[in-house]
Structures are given as C-alpha cells and as structure tokens.
Write a structure and sequence with these properties.
By secondary structure, the chain is an alpha/beta fold. The protein contains 17 helices and eleven strands. The structure holds flavin mononucleotide (FMN).
C-alpha cells in the first residue's frame, strides 16, 4: 500500500501575557517568556511536528512588542541553540535576513546551530521589509535589488558551507595540517554585492545542505524561491491564493530544472480552536479587540497606501480607489493580496477592516472546533493549496491545547501525518533529498 502524501507541520514559538497570567510566578523571577517557549517546543516535539519556527525583524517595532507583551523578543538563531539542547528530534527553523547580515557570519552561525542541533536546522531566508536605518542605509533598497542580493548571498553561503567538508574531522595523520589545507579551499567569491575569500571555519554538518525556507511572494520573490527554496512560508489568506501560489511555484521550479514538487508551500495559519464554533469565534473576537478602528485604518494605509477614512463604513471599496500598482510598498506580497481581494470582492469598508490582509499579515485564519479545523486544512491540502502549514497560535492556551490533543491526532488517524519520527534531521522530516 503506498503511503499517502504527508503534511508538513511547523509551529511558531511565542509566549505572551496570557501565559504569564497562567503561570505560578516565583517572586524573584522576572518573566521573560523563555521557559514557556522551551516548553512549547517540547510539546511540539511530543506531537512529532516537523519543526518549530521563529520570524525575525531587525527593528524594535512597537506593534510587535505589544503583541508579544511580557515576553522578551530574542535573536532567534541564538534562542534556538537553547531549544536545540532541550529537544532531540524536532527541526528548528530560524529566520535571518540577507539584506543586513554578512554572508560569512550567516554561514557560520547557521552551521554552528546545525552542529548544536545535530542536523535539525532550517534557514528561513528573508529580504526584510524594514530596518535599513539600523545598518547605515538611509532607506530600504527596492524589492528587486534586495532579491538580487539575496540570491548572491544564498549562493555564497552555500559555497562557504561546501568549502569546509565534515570529513576534515576524520583526518588523523601526522601531516594533518597539510591534508586539511588541501581539503578546505578558498572560494574566492567576487560578486556584485560581496567579496569573500573563504573557506568557512566551521565544517558542514554531515547531514548535508540544510533545508532553505523563504518568505516573500512577489515576482522576484517567487523566482528566487523557485531557484533555491525547499519550503516557502506563505501568506495565503484564502484557498484560491494558495492554489495559485502552489501551481505557480511548481511551474517556476521546473523552469529552474527542479522537480515540480521540490518546494513545500507552507502557509501561516492563525488558529482559534474551541469546543464549539461560537467559543472559537469569541476567542478570535477577543484576540482582535485591541485593534481600534483607527489602528485598522492605519494598517490598511501601511499595507497598500489606502486611505479609507473618508468613506462610510458601509460603502464599497472598488478598484478605482486603489493607488497606482507601481507605487513603492513595504511588501509587494502583502499589497498584492489586498489589491486582488478588493478587485475580486468589492468589500465594504467594514468588511475590509476585518480581513487578514489588513489585520493579520495576510495569514489564513481558521476558526472552529478541532474537527472543523481538521476539515478546513484537509480541504486545502486536497485542493493543492498547501503542502502543510506553519501554525501561529492565536487564542488562549485552551486553543493550543486542543490543537495538540485533538487536531494533530485527527491528521494521524487520516494517515496524512506521522505517528512517530522516522529520521532525526529536518531534511528527513520534510522528506526532501539533496539534488
Ligand atoms: C509570510 C511572510 C513572512 C515574512 N517574514 C519576515 C520576517 O520574519 N522577517 C523579515 O525581515 N521579513 C519577513 N518577510 C518579508 C519578506 O522577506 C520580504 O522582504 C517582503 O515580503 C518583500 O518581498 P516581496 O517583494 O516578495 O513581497 C515576510 C514576508 C512574508 C510574505
């Protein structure tokens, strides 16, 4: 009997004030959210998930800090060194920007984490929406330039990894230095953005090239993903955008001489799970109640430059009020999703201000009982709108408890998710093989 296609499931690690309220605090202990996230990673491993995940931004963003209230936002690659030593099997996918980090440092830190975790690292490659002011640039370079740099940076990081093979560790002879000098050769990279001699000072882990993730789905983002990524962290708020992205990436992958199914498309999934639909809906309402109407207007403006303040709440938003498609935006991915939604649906202002494209980073929002959440995910899986998902817990602790206790077992029962780990590297969990 052939094995059914398997889902890839990742979980975003976070903790917030809610966890703090549920925790018995030791008087002398200042809450940082670190212990809770380690516990969450252990729960995810117990549920045999493919990986835990963290996004990262190189700015102190008040919105982000407010969302993680009470929890310290750390450098994810450093944080994952701790997670890696507290777990044994689960993958750890860290985010690092190619716009701001020197490739030699990226190559070294990621490979160091790969040794610390025993081959469980994935690198989520981002080109970043903001942060240029912290790195000596006045403003963010345009999306195309950021992707050109990302492509060169990624190729260079991979070359650095290969410049120092793990077999070096096995050299055991009197003339070891001579043998090693032959084995670790400079790469002499001279590109448009970087000049790096190499070789790297950390050997590549024997599990091979670490899986590469990517986030950003503009034209240049998709081409970049199709050329190098093993998985993509996608923003697909509805089934149609998921189907379109999966189909498009498969075609582009083939254009780069890769197998059509070489890339796993993994949408972000905010979930709110209750014993009844009404309970889940109430969790969703509470999670968003801090978003005042003014904040929602500001978000619509930030994503697409759309000023809705002059319109009545029941007025329709139509294509003719959309700003020019060529205007500079923070993220083309997010702007295009909102633009397409408006053109297709002509929502009222009120409906628009409820949409994930405005209030939820364009991630899919799933609300319901465990059975309903299971069905919604399976519907998209079977329709070719996803290969898995990266769960972003949204509601109170109960919602997450139900995700582990009820939703994951439903996938196992349906034969689309593992009962136990077969391998012990992230590459094995994702079922991807080196080309
Ligand atoms: C789902 C998703 C997640 C992202 N996560 C991050 C992140 O964690 N850190 C970051 O700096 N940029 C992040 N980005 C921004 C992208 O790396 C990229 O810079 C941005 O989307 C612009 O690329 P585009 O022109 O392809 O849209 C994310 C983008 C998307 C779509």
């Amino acid at each position: 009997m052939s094995l059914k296609k398997q889902l890839c499931i990742g979980l975003t690690l976070s903790s917030s004030k809610k966890d703090k309220e549920n925790m018995q605090m030791d008087d002398n202990k200042f809450y940082s959210g670190i212990e809770e996230q380690i516990e969450l990673a252990k729960r995810a491993e117990k549920a045999k998930l493919d990986f835990v995940f963290k996004a990262d931004y190189l700015v102190a963003h008040p919105d982000l800090i407010a969302r993680n209230r009470g929890s310290v936002i750390l450098d994810p690659t450093l944080f994952f060194t701790a997670i890696a030593r507290e777990t044994k099997k689960i993958g750890v996918v860290t985010t690092a920007s190619t716009s701001f980090n020197p490739p030699y440092i990226l190559a070294r830190q990621l490979q160091s984490l790969n040794w610390i975790s025993n081959g469980r690292v994935g690198w989520n490659i981002v080109t970043s929406i903001e942060g240029a002011e912290n790195f000596g640039n006045e403003k963010m370079p345009a999306s195309e330039e950021r992707y050109a740099k990302a492509a060169e940076c990624t190729e260079l990081v991979k070359k650095l990894w290969k410049s120092h093979p793990y077999e070096v560790l096995e050299v055991d002879s009197a003339d070891a230095a001579e043998v090693i000098r032959e084995m670790i050769q400079p790469i002499d990279h001279e590109g448009n953005f970087f000049h790096v001699k190499g070789p790297l000072n950390v050997p590549e882990h024997f599990s091979g090239t670490m899986p590469l993730f990517q986030a950003g789905a503009s034209e240049s983002g998709r081409n970049f993903a199709a050329s190098v990524a093993d998985a993509i962290f996608a923003a697909t708020p509805d089934i149609e955008s998921g189907i379109e992205l999966c189909k498009d990436l498969k075609e582009r992958a083939q254009g780069h001489g890769r197998q059509p199914d070489a890339i796993r498309v993994l949408p972000g999934l905010y979930f709110f799970i209750g014993d009844t639909y009404e309970e889940a809906q109430e969790m969703y309402r509470q999670a968003n109640q801090h978003l005042t109407i003014e904040r929602r207007y500001a978000l619509a403006e930030m994503v697409l430059g759309l000023n809705l303040r002059e319109l009545a709440l029941n007025e329709k938003v139509t294509a003719n009020i959309l700003p020019d498609a060529d205007q500079a935006v923070r993220s083309k991915t997010h702007a295009d999703l909102l633009r397409r939604f408006i053109i297709k649906n002509e929502p009222t202002v009120e409906q628009l201000l409820e949409r994930p494209e405005v209030i939820g980073s364009s991630h899919w929002v799933a609300i319901g009982t465990p059975q309903e959440i299971f069905q919604q995910i399976m519907e998209r899986f079977e329709a070719g709108a996803l290969d898995g998902f990266i769960a972003i817990p949204g509601g109170p602790p109960k919602s997450l408890d139900l995700f582990f206790s009820d939703v994951i077992p439903l996938f196992v029962e349906a034969g689309v998710f593992r009962k136990d780990y077969v391998g012990s590297t992230l590459r094995e969990h994702l079922g991807i093989f080196e080309a």
